[in-house]
Design brief:
disordered N terminus; single chain; alpha+beta; four-stranded antiparallel beta sheet; six-stranded antiparallel beta sheet; about 350 residues
């Protein structure tokens, strides 16, 4: 494995044990491939102490992640905007405001090829530790992770203040008030890396972000992608009810490339066609999918938006898996497919022996 810096970039070169198979399958060019995923991840674990019974809507009405995203959006805009009725594109302060960077970012007109992309991924996501649980009593803390991607980590003070303000206004059904008890920084394996905020003392601490470098690709050659929330993938003009591994990789490639280009200072030198070719060569050993319906109602227009997707797993193996390993590993922390900011596309990599 090639080492990584604290910035969150990591890369992989083809290991010697794969060399004969990769050369036989793809020729000498497979041996020359190496790519990085230069995107920093800062994973903040918020612990909220409800002052009453905290209730969230059921999945078919948006679920927990949607309620969190809505509260964060309205709270941050209310905190920063002189007039919440202003739209970001025409605001004279948009170049100095963190809200459009996090919620309504648009590509610079100085990048013609990319300026037509009007649906950029947001550089954050919210994940409750127990996405299926909808109710917490006053003596039960509610815990969720906020993943700040790339430059969005610089907005942590604004995220923190916003959640404190949301605690005063209330969250969920009935607007339950709460206090932010603490925020801790978490590494890629879920380990505690230190206290970032202590609510009892109202103190913020500086904690270095851990590296999200992947472990070695499993020698068993077999891994499973287990989706904890619905994944909504569009392919061949329709939504896939049984996503193929190659489709997951292609959408993950596209999402990560956009996040890197717009929210980091690193340049991207990926060969998109080569990544797709590697994905096509990976063998699917097993898979099982079922459809999970979900929806949300937009705050302003009150329009109903479909958030449904496929839940399940896919198990894969083969020598072409290793070059894709950094992509698959990082996908756990950025999500894949549509509606990621509302909680969709969350999967875990299971390494099988």
């Amino acid at each position: 494995m090639r080492g990584s810096s604290a910035s969150g970039a990591f890369g992989i070169c083809v290991q010697e044990r794969w060399a004969p198979n990769l050369v036989a399958l793809f020729g000498e060019r497979a041996m020359k491939r190496s790519f990085e995923v230069p995107l920093a991840v800062s994973r903040y674990r918020f612990t909220l102490a409800p002052k009453g019974t905290l209730r969230f809507p059921a999945a078919h009405r948006g679920g927990v992640a949607t309620a969190l995203r809505g509260a964060l959006g309205w709270g941050l805009k209310g905190l920063l905007c002189p007039d919440v009725r202003w739209a970001c594109p025409g605001c004279p302060l948009k170049e100095r405001c963190i809200y459009p960077v996090v919620f309504t970012h648009r590509p610079s007109s100085a990048i013609p090829k990319l300026s037509k992309n009007m649906d950029l991924p947001r550089p954050f996501l919210l994940r409750p530790l127990d996405p299926g649980r909808l109710e917490y009593s006053a003596d039960e803390p509610f815990v969720f992770d906020l993943h700040a991607l790339g430059k969005a980590a610089e907005a942590f003070p604004f995220f923190l203040i916003t959640w404190r303000e949301v605690g005063v206004a209330g969250l969920g059904i009935g607007r339950c008030r709460f206090e932010v008890r603490e925020v801790r920084l978490i590494d890629s394996e879920g380990r505690d890396c230190g206290l970032a905020y202590d609510g009892s003392e109202n103190l913020v601490y500086s904690v270095p972000s851990p590296s999200y470098e992947p472990p070695p690709c499993p020698r068993s050659e077999t891994v499973t992608l287990l989706f904890k929330t619905p994944v909504t993938l569009k392919s061949a003009g329709g939504i896939r009810r049984e996503p193929r591994f190659s489709e997951i990789v292609r959408r993950l490639r596209d999402r990560l490339s956009s996040l890197i280009q717009f929210y980091s200072d690193r340049e991207l030198g990926w060969d998109f066609k080569w990544i797709a070719e590697m994905a096509d060569e990976v063998e699917e050993v097993d898979s099982a999918w079922w459809w999970q319906p979900a929806a949300r109602r937009a705050g302003r227009s009150r329009a109903l938006h479909d958030l449904g997707g496929a839940v399940g797993f896919v198990t894969v193996r083969g020598p072409a898996l290793e070059p894709l390993w950094p992509l698959l590993w990082m996908g756990q922390f950025v999500g894949v497919g549509k509606h990621v900011v509302f909680g969709n596309g969350w999967y875990e990599v299971k390494r099988l022996g």
